[in-house]
Amino acid sequence: MASSDDIAIIGWAVSPMERRTAKTEQQMLFEVVSDAVDHAGITRADVDFTVAGSCDYVAGQAFSFVQNIDAVGAWPPKRDSHVEMDGAWALYETWIRLLAGDIDVALATGSGRSSTADPALIYPMEMDPFYLAPLGADALSFSALQARALLDAGKVTERQMAEIALRSRTSAKDNPHTQVSGEFDLDEALATDYVRAPLRKHDLPPITDGAACVVIARADKAREICQNPVWIKGFAHYSELHNPGMRDLLTSPSTTLAAKAAGLDEAPVDFAELQVAFSHEEVILREALGLEDDTPVNRSGGPLAANPVMASGLVRIAESARQIREGQGRRGVAHATSGPCLQQNLVCVLEGDER
Amino acid sequence: MTAPAAGTVEMTIRFPYKRSLGPVIGAFMTGLASQQILGIRNGAEVMCPPLEWDPRTGKELQHDDLVEVGPAGTVVSWTWVPKPSAQHPLDRPFALALIKLDGADTSLTHAVDAGSLDAMSTGMRVAPRWKAERQGHITDIEAFVPGEEPQGLDDVLPDEPVAMMPYNAEIPYTLPIAVNTLRNAAALREHRLIGLRCPVCSRTYAGDRAFCPIDTTALTAEHEVELPQTGTLTNYTIITPVQYPGQTETEPFARCMILVDDSDLVLGYQPVIDLPVDQVRVGVRVQLVWGDTDIDGWQPTGDPDVDDPDLVNRIY
Description:
The complex is a heterodimer of chains A (355) and B (316).
Chain A: E1 7-14, H1 25-40, E2 49-53, H2 56-59, H3 64-72, E3 79-83, H4 87-99, E4 105-113, H5 119-122, H6 139-152, H7 158-171, H8 186-190, E5 194-196, E6 199-200, E7 209-218, H9 219-225, E8 230-239, H10 253-261, E9 271-273, H11 281-289, H12 312-325, E10 331-338, E11 344-351
Parallel strand pairs in A: 2-3, 2-4, 9-10
Antiparallel strand pairs in A: 1-7, 1-8, 4-7, 5-6, 8-11, 10-11
Helix pairs in contact in A: 1-3, 4-12
Chain B: E1 7-20, H1 22-33, E2 37-42, E3 45-47, E4 66-69, E5 73-81, E6 94-101, E7 108-112, E8 125-130, E9 141-146, E10 164-177, H2 179-189, E11 194-197, E12 204-206, E13 211-212, E14 217-218, E15 224-226, E16 230-239, E17 253-260, E18 267-270, E19 285-290, E20 295-300
């Protein structure tokens, strides 16, 4: 039974996932915020605190979040914040804020139009500006270096990586909020050229425009508004040092620390939604989280089926809430990541009421 | 009338940064200009590239405890880049690799100019190929090459220690243009000033606003109103231009807030015409002056100033 200090997800919305939307980021946000407060059964006026997660380098505009506020809704003046992080970290900030106890309802958004520019040119901007960015080192290249390290260590094979991608995209067939779904022939896929050896096209996420919004409330308010709140049982994030050349790429200690802090090991989970943008990352994350072999991962398809950068982690949390509410499990774990080679990791443990 | 479909605009943003290097990275870059690769001692380990702090504990390291490493090293991991981007150090296919230089315990990320993917393997030995023109930059090493022998060695030393580093990136963007912005641009081409009236609160916003910020209501073609082309200057700033990339002004100029008549939100950062900077003041009545496709600026009408002490507060 939840105590009055507990906090629950009471509503959410995920936008269509498209290769290139004609909508501005502001319009995408307007729609997901409207849908999420509707879904929660409240209005924007009931929301006490808003936090947005987005990235100016992706948006192609300095301080792009300032004009996004009009779409979120900030009148009368509202407590508002922004993180230059995935919306999952925005949700973390709303959760921390509600723990203070003086306000009851908050919402977090994540939004990104990855189609604005070539990811190979955008993502070096997030790297060490002295040693890495001047080499044009991007997230895709670093992921390939991590995949190679796993292959060399015998922790995965290229076929197993392809199987992870195939399973994800097959699961995505039933998800309306997805971009790439369906089965493909494993042998044909493994015969294709590398995009960044040892990564082939199927090991990579699609380039996706999309947004998501999640609404949370303190327990008493959540019970008042909502028939079946999804409880946030634990929420934590840890970061490792930045430069992948100074890390052991075979493991993700920050994921393990975040899972421990979020109480993941207190009871088994029925499913996991992990921010696996590159197929091999599932192997590292499963191990770092201590998941059982039969725990279903990314029944939504995950980022390999739709990867709206800056919203992809928040979508994992929204998807987990949906699966619990729809009875596909009572306890689940959502994961989000940021930075090259899984530098920073967030873990959110969710539970539905006992039935 | 059917609304035009949303279009797109293409633009390139340049990031011309100059970065201070500090004592440790500065020494490393000075080393590169001298064809030396330096690491820093961190307990029993040597870190290359060097940092000022242990990145695991945050403990400050002895900044001058630098040791030469390499020049050859071992490939710890690698990937193949078949189509280099404009930001990559080589314009032909190459490997990006983690290289543990001899004497170092961490890996340096750099390019390996191996010719083909088949020439790459984990554990292979590589050595730097130096550029002839060096400036104290990570790309003073043009790339690593297979083998033990560094290439391009000379005896040219930098004139002085390297303290700054240029970083130039540019990203071409394709951004969507909202339907309201397209309609507003079409109106401006016809020398019409339009606004959008919120169906909930009836406030009127000049220009192409997508949402009423008060009611979070979407504003669309049906809310469009024609506005008079006169208004009042409510606030201003005089800018003395500093010459940064992209600045074309050379003399002090004004940017003004204009409250268009019959509207509720000022137009920001508007230029003024026939109003010298020493005569710009709150309350001046102004009228629109058209350029070919857009507003050229606002010019005094000659009418008496509006005397309203609250006017100066209208900055939104």
